[in-house]
Amino acid sequence: MNHKKIDPKSNSLRENYHLLISGIAPRPIALVGSKDSSNNFNLAPFSYFNAFGANPPVVGFSPALSGRTGLPKDTLANIESTKEFTVSIVTSEIVYQTSLASCEYEKNIDEFDKSGLGKYNSNVISTPGVLESPFIMECKLIDIIKLGNKPGSGNLILGEVVFFHINEDLFKDDGSIDAFKIDQIGRSGGGWYTKVKESLFKLSKPRGIGVGFDSIPYKFLNTSLTGNQLAKLAAIEKIPKYVDINIPLNFNNLVKKLSEYINKDEIETAWKYILKWKYLNE
């Protein structure tokens, strides 16, 4: 793999922005509701967004200063004033309306009305969420960390989630949320988005502490086995005991056999083949 080396200081704002949103993707989208001191409501999407802790539950997003004027967005000014906001998760059913809410309307224009999205009354704060979103969080401001004072500079807004509103249909019997039902949309580079439920796959975490790549005989690290396949071998908590079994004597055929077992998640069997090879060759 050949990497192109880029110094961000030699790039334009637009070039650095493109690299960030293309490489860090897909990103969850926060549809942020806010209001000013005169009760004018604002709604805007932000994909510089994530969760930052569970005790207390904290979310954060970063409205950048305008790349053209260097001025703050209405969302930032509103939250600085009222110390509260809502975050509604964007799903495939409201993605086009969300895009419409991203237009730079005048300050006194209500993007709820412009986008056709309804207001959902909050329990603790006075700012509404988005009625059509299945997952809404009421947030009180913790801090605003200014990351610069130039066009495109970020402003990391951290808020404590003081109330959740979640569609009951999303919950499984065990109380967890069904990843296929919530149907979030993720933001990628350019004009591209991701339908999360169409990209889902399940990855089993190591049950304990994996033995690691350094426990795999070196010769197997430089074969057609992929990094993911080797990681499955390395994730086993304990290497099984040696068993005297028949294995292919040709090394390439042995690697093919290992690949078959790994792909079927028969990891202990794959390790037994490796141990027999090690017995014969070391």
Please describe the topology of this protein.
Elements: H1 13-23, E1 27-28, E2 30-35, E3 41-46, E4 49-54, E5 57-61, H2 74-82, E6 84-89, H3 95-101, H4 111-115, E7 119-120, E8 129-130, E9 135-146, E10 155-166, H5 179-182, E11 185-187, E12 193-195, H6 218-221, H7 227-234, H8 251-263, H9 267-281
Antiparallel strand pairs: 1-11, 2-3, 2-6, 4-5, 5-10, 6-9, 7-8, 9-10, 11-12
Helix pairs in contact: 8-9
Total separate domains: 2
Q: Rg from C-alpha positions?
A: 25 Å
Rounded mean pLDDT score: 95
Shape: elongated
Overall CATH architecture of the largest domain: Roll
The helix tally amounts to: 9
Low-confidence stretches: none
Descriptive notes:
This protein is of the alpha+beta class. It has two domains: 8-198, Roll (Pnp Oxidase, Chain A), CATH 2.30.110; 213-281, no CATH class. The chain has helices spanning 13-23, 74-82, 95-101, 111-115, 179-182, 218-221, 227-234, 251-263, 267-281, and strands spanning 27-28, 30-35, 41-46, 49-54, 57-61, 84-89, 119-120, 129-130, 135-146, 155-166, 185-187, 193-195. The chain has a seven-stranded antiparallel β-sheet with strand order 3-2-6-9-10-5-4. It has a three-stranded antiparallel β-sheet with strand order 1-11-12, with no helix packed on it. Strands 7-8 form a two-stranded antiparallel sheet. The longest helix is centred in the last third of the chain and has 15 residues, at 267-281. The relative contact order is 0.12. The model has no long low-confidence stretch (mean pLDDT 95).
